[in-house]
Amino acid sequence: MEKYGAKNISNYILKYFYDKECTTDEFAMFLLEINNLKMQKILYFLFGFYFSETKQELFPKDFYAWKYGPVIQKLYYFNKEKVEQSGEINLPKDAYSKYMYENPNINFIIIDKILSNIL
Q1: What pairs with residue 71 in β-bridges?
Q2: What phi, psi does 91 have (nearest 5°)?
Q3: Which among 70, 77, 9 is positioned nearest to 40, based on CA atoms?
Q4: Which of 35, 41, 46, 103 shows the greatest Cβ crowding within 10 Å of its Cβ?
């Protein structure tokens, strides 16, 4: 079994994202897309803001500097495969379903606050 990490938090981000109230406004729907690149950026900002609030790392940091921003390489290729399998642009809701996000050491109230400001 893998250690708790970015995939677990990504599962929570997708749950948070897909549980948001949907809208018929076309521009708002564009903003609600969550593709591989957007997931990487969300994880990067979430990691930083969570650390600034708690002085604890949300998951092991494994970011690389790529052309379009910071990337967790293993997660990037995992996401790429999931998107290709689904045939969609966005990550499917169940992309990380086997990675449980519950963890008593993580403050999800802080995560929700951060996500509400960046999503």
Answers
A1: 64
A2: -65, 135
A3: 70
A4: 46
What are the 10-residue block averages of pLDDT along the chain, 119 residues in total?
85 87 54 84 97 95 94 96 89 91 95 91
Question: What is the pTM for the complete model shown?
Answer: 0.88
Q: Could you give phi then psi for residue 61, rounded to 5 degrees? A: -80, 130
Distance of alpha carbon 7 from alpha carbon 95, whole angstroms: 9
Place of tokens 């018929």: 24
Tokens 């995992």 sit on residue: 78
Largest CA distance in the chain: 42
Nearest C-alpha neighbor of 102 from the set 6, 2, 8: 8
- List Cβ neighbours of 117 (8 Å cut-off, separation of 6 or more): none
- What count of residues does the chain have? 119
Distances (CA, A) of 77 to 40, 62, 81: 11, 14, 6
- What is the distance between the terminal CA atoms of the chain, rounded to a whole angstrom? 30
